[in-house]
Design goal:
It comes from Letharia lupina. This is THUMP domain-containing protein. It holds the Pfam family THUMP. One of its GO terms (molecular function) is RNA binding. A hairpin with a 6-residue loop joins strand 2 and strand 3. This protein is globular. It has 334 residues and is α+β, with helices and mostly antiparallel strands. 29% of the residues are buried.
Length: 334
Amino acid sequence: MEESKKRKSETSNGDNAQRKSKPWRVPRKGQPNYVNPTIEPGDSGIWATCELGKEGKSTAELRDLFEEYAKKLYGSLEEQADGEDSNEDVEADIEAEIKKEVQGMKSRVTKKETLFQSVKMNIQCVLFFKTRPPVEPVSFVHTICKDAAEGATQRARFVKRLSPMAMMGKATEDGLAKVADAVLGPVFHVEEDGLKFAIRPTRRNHNIMKRDDIIKQIAKAVGGDHKVDLKGYNRLILVDVYRNILGMSVVGSDYDELKQYNLAEIYDPTPKLKAKMSIGAAPEVKDKDDKPPSDVAPNGHGPKDDVIPMEKSEDDKTSLDSQKAADDAHLTAL
């Protein structure tokens, strides 16, 4: 009796082991191995924040939203692909025509997918999408937020703020100088003189470059023909530093009016902002430099500042008034 039970248990254990085993899959010959995309110097893209635990759904929502606007703004890409196909030899045989059609479909899909490439970040509630021409991140994000403010249907339920980055670089003094020359030159060295500007640096998990040093270096790159104005600016310079990478862009004077490109606030303002809007006053959005964007909340109701982990230095704890005085002192001394 005991011997039969022993045989039965051995047989069942063998069956379980056989079920759990998985075949080892060998990549096919010539099949490229997938490599996770990374942010490289010279890239352009869009930072995004989202609700806690909704990073996957937010990535899918943003990809659909971006592709919809890409088709709306740059729909000529597929037409160009079709035009290229029509110039081929018309008298090719059937097999060649089939190959050409399949290749054309693949090229169109590739063009559509590589316009926006999501990069996995090791930080909660933060996403990044790399972009490629003809997408221009600043005007692209501005169009999305402008349409949202004018009553467009909300397409991204869990997405908070969008931060366009015209160019990315290394988070070093040399990297900041290169990015500043490339991003600020076309705006402050080509357009009209006497522009009023402001600088808003944001740092996450970065303590190498101090906030004041970033402001001073950017102000030097802007030049002395322009004047600093933290509230009545014509151009606002955004600088996002995350660990060993940084990005920069120049946005327009309606940045605060569009809730700092916070889609959640545009569609559903917090009660404080609603009260100010009801009496006809423009909502005042406080500048919270060196803190996570005030748009990440675990329950999605109102802005929170303590969701994204950050390393703070002592110079990050100054008040808004002392920051303004320090900024003016730096920029006046240049």
